[in-house]
Please model this.
Amino acid sequence: MHDDDATHELPLRSAGERPAGMASGGDVSGPDTAPSDPSDRPVLDVGLVVSPAALTSATLASDVTEALAAKYPQVEWNLVVVEDRLAEPPVTPLDLIETARDRMLDENWDLVLVLTDLPLKDGRRVVQTQLSPVHGVGLVVVPALGVVQVATKVRAACVRLVEELLDFDEDDTSGDIDRRARQRAEDVEGRDDENPVQFAARVLGGNVGVLLGLVRANRPLTLALRLSQLIAVTAAAGALTLITPDIWVLATNYGPWRLGLLSVVAVVAVAVSLIVGAKLWERPRRKAEREQVMLFNVATALTMTIGVSVFYLAVFLLALAAAFLLLDGRSFQQLSDQSWSNGKIVESAWMTASLATLGGAVGAGLEEDDITRAAAYTRESDEG
Model:
């Protein structure tokens, strides 16, 4: 966690203040930039956590605020700047993101951006910007941006990260932006007369757009590609399973309904193993965090389930290709005492994929926690 003694809030010009000569947003190009009624705009609190040596400009917060306000006048941007290094080296991007997440919850911010002076790498690759849509955290590695026009590059990176964290894009209408910002900014208050299930239903019902945006921005379709050990274990299990005659018999006798149920069990088993093994499920430390933590957990579960489902489909296609390549009618009939058909090949590949994926649930425990968390939460910025 952060060191409160080393944390200093920096002065910040009001989010609504604009430099002389700047219009109120009507002449700035952006997605449907007609100004909103200032009294009815959603207010987004954005924390800007800056390492002392990474502060590129005394007016950084004002510059970022003005850039966001010019492009998205539908929102009132409230940037709060604090000096805090968050962690001392050696440190990874994931370490900073998770520590910044804790700070965001402590301060009740809606988003947090981290400007660090620490050179960071993801494997052998130098990190410039990284984000965790589920956490609501963006990271800018200032030394990686070079030595020319650093303040300009940092401002542009901050604006881009906020857009990606909020799932804004150039096709959004003013109403889209207002709705997403409002859902992110407004909290669902707990009621004394409701149980946890009722509270969860209200949270999820009122934040469907935010939740879908979190999952989409997290790119679950690429999750399996980042879990190399799980892929290796599952592939090995599939190769051994496919050549077993008992599997051919079981696959034929199971039928599509039981094979489908086995597929669901396999996907859920791997997703749960990854979530539990890497401790991805959070518990709120106080009532004020309940809504954010609930959205975080549901987005995590959906991300893992979608990612593992895509992984399962890839395993099935590989098993199907291997079955057509390795199995032949004579051996199949002799060893399984079953008639030969293309349908039998598909059923054998189907069961092979399910059992191999269930084997992958065990292999999920072999993945290092940091690797799993990074695969589930973090990605590079689109332009980083």
